[in-house]
Amino acid sequence: MDRLVIDLAVLVLAGFVGYAVISKVPNTLHTPLMSGTNAIHGIVVLGGLLLMAESHGVLERVLLVIAVAFGMINVVGGFLVTDRMLGMFKSKQPPKRDAEEKEEAAQRAAASDGRRG
Amino acid sequence: MSAAAALAVAIYQRPAFIDGIYIIAFGLLIYGMSGLTGPRTAVRGNKIAALGMAIAIAITLLRRGEFHGADTWWLIALGLVIGTAIGIPAALKVRMTAMPQMVALFNGVGGGAVWLIAWVEYRHHFAPGYFPLRKEVFELFGAIVGSISFWGSNIAFGKLQELLPGRPIKLPGASQTALNALLLLVAVGTMVALLAGVHSQLLFVLGILLAAALLGNMVVLPIGGADMPVVIALLNAFTGLSAAATGVALGNTAMIVAGMIVGASGTILTNLMARAMNRSVPAIIAGGFGGAVAAPGAAQAASEGKVVRSTSAQDVAIQLAYARQVVIAPGYGMAVAQAQHAVRELERALEAKGVEVKFAIHPVAGRMPGHMNVLLAEADVPYELLKEMDEINPEFPRTDVTLVIGANDVVNPAANNEPGSPIYGMPILEVDKSGAVVVLKRSMASGFAGVDNPLFYNPKTSLLFGDAKQSVSEITAELQAL
Questions:
Q1: Domain limit, last residue, from B286, B319, B346
Q2: A50 at the B interface (CB within 8 A)?
Q3: Which of B6, B120, B421, B479 has the CB geometry, 3.0–4.6 Å to B317, for a possible disulfide?
Q4: B278 with B421, same domain?
């Protein structure tokens, strides 16, 4: 089958899969969803990478370096900020993890005190 | 070389190998996103999606002709380093109150990458004597939508960051719509001309990139602050769709799948937000809602002869202390005043007095989908306390006091019972059904929609004027002193 036809089939199916998956995201997580999708459309970085080797002249290379940088801002920034944000969503009964963290922090503080002393 | 290594090299050199790895990569992206169905699984889901993305990028870099056997490898490295160097500090430093701007900016950056890539593709594919009609359609589509998204997102960022005025900026009457239609026509016309065999890079830059850029500006400038949740979601969808189109042009399945997930997500959110405002997406895009505050005089006239009851922090504290259930309805004003931590303290103080506290979250409260949830999460409010509109509305008759913090249009009863009101039909938080309402407000200015709010003149309502953060802290202090 023609590659283009296959790609279009993938496009349509991916649209339906995306719709099915994202419909289940609750309102509470809509902001992390948006920043997460910010990261995912950073996939355009691949386009910049694929075209770079075939590029000619200064203009094309400047355009592609900017495109790769833009894509990478999306990928790195998007996933990091989403991770940071999701870390803030806490349940009413999370104490286990918090307690562990506090213990670790206390141990670290003790260790650094020891080193200083 | 051992047989295994030879086999590995043979596999690696097959073009289908990279396509196979892409399948793993986008599989992880989808699996990761499906973790976002709940706060418990979301952190892991995000990490899985990040792993999928890392695999997609790594396998692309391993291709022959990237780092291996090309003199452009340092340009790729340069781009990756610049992007990482900007992305990391931006993600780690941004405040949660600034998330709407951040998301707008990230949308724009993605759209920017798409039109830059499309420009290079144009230079490669459209040559004299070559009549492209297949993948190039997607290239040009990506260029148009990417450019609209890039410029539209920059304007949205400017408005949210208050570099631009938040009020609608538009040409008088129908001329704005006419200009937008003309720009769209130019872009589509140029697309047809290029596909029909007219070869001109100047035409591509002016007719596609510039026309779409102007269109992006013209579409977002007339949109006011409170309509931002819809616009951000829509631009998100645009960036995703343009990325998917570029994926088709490049024959890259990872880009197609990832782009379509984002496109689907943006579309779903756009519809949800529009429904929560009871307005159609085209009507929002037409812009200028609230008549550019056309009738502040009219709003004043309507409120003449009506009295509001103002109250003090001490009185509110007493009112709250004797309540069984208190509902807090936050809005954009809470974000502006950075009051979320103060609100959390108040919630703790009330719970210490045995008062049950719940939060009522309207879908379009704030400037982006889920804005209030993130702010309250930042302040450590457990997410179980945050109730969606449909869940909390039946609870208001059982609620003793509702505290409205910096929200206006989303609690305006005119939406339910004044057919003449511009916001009539919009689903609202029915706070007027609770025993008493305390509204924390900076001043008597009307909400974004410029619509008078009968809630303020309701005999059950009292108003506490002042900065939201300070007012909330005062109430907490009074409450603890009781």
A1: B286
A2: yes
A3: B479
A4: no
